[in-house]
Amino acid sequence: MEKFKNIVAKDEKELRETEATLRKEALNLRFQQAGGQLKNTARRRQVRREIAQIKTAVGQKATSKKK
Fold first, then answer.
1. Other residues' Cβ atoms within 10 Å of the Cβ of residue 32
2. Nearest CA to 25 among 17, 63, 55, 14?
3. What is the tens place of the pLDDT at every residue in 2-61?
4. Helices and strands in the chain: count of H runs, count of E runs
5. CATH number for the segment(s) 4-62
């Protein structure tokens, strides 16, 4: 899990790529849990939080560009 200040330091393109990767991982984790194969159930929560942090950082960057 990355610190928020490290996430904010990245550029928007890199954040979008990371978000896409995390969304794919979240989908795979969901299927693993449904199939009873998921060992680390806490990882789903971590991935969801990281996606939320990235979306927050992208929103902040967009807002600061408008000013």
1. 16
2. 17
3. 788 999 999 999 999 999 999 999 999 999 999 999 999 999 999 999 999 999 999 999
4. 3, 0
5. 1.10.287
